[in-house]
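Q: Can I borrow your eye for a moment on a structure tokenisation matter? Would you mind producing a protein record, from residues through to fold? Write it directly below this note and I will take it from there.
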Amino acid sequence: MTSPILVQAEVREQSHLHSGITDELRSSLNEDDILGMTQMFKALSDPNRMKIAYLLQQSEELCVRDVALILNSSVATASHHLRLLKQMDITKSRKEGKNVFYSLKDHHIQTLITMTLEHQKEKHCHG
């Protein structure tokens, strides 16, 4: 069994060889950006919210009632998920009379949903 001290020394020795790269990468880490990305993925980790994002990517805009109907959920549940997605800057909304319509915030979110789906489909193809 290798001693932990020897392992640490080996890691330090190998790190020294790549210190320019590791220093540059370490300085590129912006904690606020990382936290924001984490929160976005966390919001989309719920299957219903991912379904909503996918639906909005497909249709561009839906009202709360349409989302509830498609998901076979209550209007309150659909509204809750849509509100959370809006708070996370994933969707935006506009009001028309009594109806609130939601769409994806911007092309970055659309690309994220598209790329995620493509990755998922490729994963199944290449099994």
Observations:
- The first strand starts at residue 62 and ends at 63.
- Helices lie at 4-17, 19-28, 31-44, 47-59, 64-71, 75-87, 107-126.
- The CA atoms of residues 34 and 40 lie 10 Å apart.
